[in-house]
Amino acid sequence: MEVFKLLLAKCRTIVRLRLLASPAATATTTVTKQPRTVHGAGMTAAGTAGTAGCSATGTAVGGFGGGERDGAADEPMRMGSFTSAPQIKNVDYQDDKLEITDGMSMADLLEYCRIARGEDRPPLVKRKFLKPVEPLNTGSDLTDGFKMLKLDAISKTCSEPALTAPQLRIFQWNMLSQTLGMHNDGFVRCPLEALTWDCRRYQLVEEILQNDPDIICLQEVDHFKFLQKILATQNYEGVFFPKPDSPCLYINGNNGPDGCAVFYRKDRLEMVNHFTRVLEVWRVQSNQVAIAAVLRTRDTQQELCVTTTHLKARKGALLSKLRNEQGKDLLHFIDGVAQNRPVILCGDFNAEPIEPIYSTVLNYRPLGLASAYADLLASEAQDENDQNAANAVGRVAVRTERVSNRSSIGSCNGVECGQANGGARTRAEESAAHEPAYTTWKIREEGEVCHTIDYVFYSQDKLTVRNCLMFPSGEEIGIDRTPSFQYPSDHFSLVCDIELQGTVADQTTQPTDTAKEPVPSHQL
């Protein structure tokens, strides 16, 4: 009887999800059917944005999700943008007239961005690394624009022995879709001018480049061509994969669909291959996507799998369950691509650490993932003999105060650890207790929102986290929160220095041609 009840409940949930199917299933909007199998999917330097989401090359790999629904009986239904309005099909065109000088130095580009967005505008909010290194002994703020870039570039170089342990800086950020931020997100305390693309686009570039990343993972990207053009001057190359039914496509003046993107520094890394996937929930395609890029370090020839995703937003038990199912599909996808390589998983999961998806990621044994920020903050808190112990205590006190302040607005990551199991914390609860107090802090019409929903996960047995960029205090952010003239997104970037363990000789498998590797399909 209990088994029957469980099956009946699951069937009811599937029916509810199908009722939430996208306009592709209920409206008259026409969507082009995509090929079933392709490797290296998404958009590259030679690609264009497409008009209805995925272009002809923007599909899942092998058995990972199939094509767009066009009425064919063998195609899966898709959960999309929850609207029956017709799409406004634009392409990524708004930055076509932008001219950037090739070969521009990093310092010149940052100065160009500062002038272009307005010299009278305040600088970006200042942030510090957990373990700052000041090789020049200046005693100055390491996150003060280009000053941070110069000093930290030196520290990265000095701590990176050749051919032994390459250290990569990972940059994760939901950069806020321009179309959604301007027309749909309701940031009631943000000046309208601060949301304009003329202002935000240069702030976005500043935030990325002043952190000097080797790998960049982005969500809500709806101006990929702009990023592609301007980051190329600093030797970055990237790929993009749009949401198949992006909510941007239902807003006048859009610049095409939003989606995920991965960039990498070509002088340090080369791309072996990349794969894309439209995430599924019980074999129903959703509107969320992922990119998995297999990258190889140029100096040591070590390979790793870098994945970025953006899970479904909105609150409620059903949406929490949907995110968890998307996460299961995502993890199986990554497992098939990674093929025992180290994994870095970055994204906006739209879920606090108390949600099921958080423990699902940490408990998926084939990948052995851990949270980069939680691990490093836990290690810092436990290392009482460290020379920075006194400062660590101060940081913990500040974090505790932030959590206390957030509780008054109904949002807090504090996990009631051990309450249900006799005082013993689970691995997920232990990790959740050390996550940052927040990764997004905004004020919308419905009130103030401040919580942690963005993460960098990594293969704990194959990688080591060395440093991470901390988050500004409420006072530093300002009473109007984000976005603002001081910060262009409602999410803060996550920046981690991650070291690859061992050398090429230690790898169990030699570099391979991922294009020839089958990516297996898994089901839970």
From TrEMBL:
UniProt keyword annotations, A-Z: Hydrolase
Entry GO MF terms: poly(A)-specific ribonuclease activity
Region of interest (Disordered), ranges: 505-524
SUPFAM superfamilies: DNase I-like
GO BP, one annotated term: nucleobase-containing compound metabolic process
InterPro entries per UniProt: CCR4/nocturin_mRNA_transcr, Deadenylase_nocturnin, Endo/exonu/phosph_ase_sf, Endo/exonuclease/phosphatase
Signal peptide range: none
Endonuclease/exonuclease/phosphatase domain span: 172-491
Coiled-coil residue spans: none
One Pfam family per UniProt: Exo_endo_phos
Transmembrane segments: none
Xref: CDD domains: Deadenylase_nocturnin (cd09096)
Protein name: Nocturnin
